[in-house]
Amino acid sequence: MNTDRRKVVLIGTGMVGMSFAYALVNQGGACNELVLIDVNKVRAQGEAMDLNHGLAFAKSNMKIYAGEYKDCRDADIVVIAAGVAQKEGETRLDLLQRNVEVFRSIVGPVVKSGFDGIFLVATNPVDIMTRVTYELSRFGASRVIGTGTSLDTARLRYLLGDYFTVDPKNIHAYVIGEHGDSEFVPLSQVMFATKPVTAILEDERNSYCIDDMKKIEDQVRTAAYKIIEAKRATYYGIGMAIARIVNAILGDENSVLTVSAKMCGEYGQRDVFIGVPCIIGRNGVKEIVELNLTQDEKAKFDNSASVLKEYFDGLTL
Ligand code: NAD
Asked: Which atom of ligand 1 is nearest to the CA of 82?
């Protein structure tokens, strides 16, 4: 990986892609070259102009331009946020198949450029599209990452912080599994500072209860639907989540983030890409953190993995 320059290529300059780019520019420091690619070249050019005009107000300088696939050659990270929207009457699987074709037109040229960095995928359904990227690129699994349940985990920590009236940074909790309907919160792993939340819920001296935990889990699972109902799409939160993962990679942070990673026997699963806590550093996924799930939680995880396997098996690659 390139150490002098930190170069990121963004493919797909729609709402999600540009929210990420905007967050990256505003946070400053991590990256000093950002290339924008989109099938709609004029859009990518317009976005590059717009961002460049804000650079005078940003924390640090960055070279931003609309580019070509050959620009991926010496990039550290290629972020994919390109995708097509669901057509009326189209099934989820039909949409997925069309997104496979979109990814075929992206991953091939990126690999052909000589790119030797890390793929970070945000396009939905993210766990499947990450696996598609892995299959098409034939990169090592540690270098193909999906945003997974990183945003869901941030939503969970925010809601738990609000519930317990504590800084979300002092809540340690993860949403794991598919980024979608079968995701869940392993309650046995939720910590308030270093205190297990299960112990707090059992303590009759307070009014905290398990039903409220279920409501919070439900709120996390349905958050995207609510936002889409209100404003048609979600993008700021995921944009910031992508920026967080990019910073963890470029800064070699070894931070624990719930990304979509390939299971190689962890959690009793193989091949499937699914959201789990992972240590993220300069070379991508350094380690998958295996949580001590209860039997019930393990069953939920297995169910989520089978949902993802079923979808993937229905695809033609
Ligand atoms: P959008 O329609 O605003 O942007 C998609 C962009 O992809 C467009 O600019 C389009 O021109 C481009 N594109 C399409 N085909 C392409 C191709 N072959 N090559 C290059 N670019 C191509 O959509 P959006 O709101 O930015 O959402 C993008 C994706 O992110 C969707 O799949 C969405 O579901 C997903 N998303 C993921 C999360 C998450 O948590 N992972 C959250 C929100 C949205």
From this structure: 7
Of the candidates 179, 221, 244, 262, the residue annotated as catalytic is 179
CA distance 236 to 211: 30
- Residue whose Cα lies nearest atom 2 of ligand 1: it is 14
3-class SS of residue 87: coil
40 lines ligand 1 (CB under 6 A): yes
Structure tokens belonging to residue 226: 């609510």
Instruction: Compute the average pLDDT of residues 148-158.
Output: 97
* pLDDT score for 123: 96
Q: What is the pLDDT of residues 61-93, one digit of tens each?
A: 899 999 999 999 999 999 999 999 877 777 778
Crossing angle of helices 150-164 and 236-250, rounded to 10°: 110
Is residue 71 within 8 Å of 35, Cβ to Cβ?
yes
Distance from Cα 11 to the centre of ligand 1, integer Å: 9
Q: What is the spatial distance between Cα 173 and Cα 44, in angstroms, rounded to a whole number?
A: 37
- Which domains does the chain show, CATH number per domain? 7-146 (3.40.50.720), 150-313 (3.90.110.10)
179 included as an active-site residue: yes
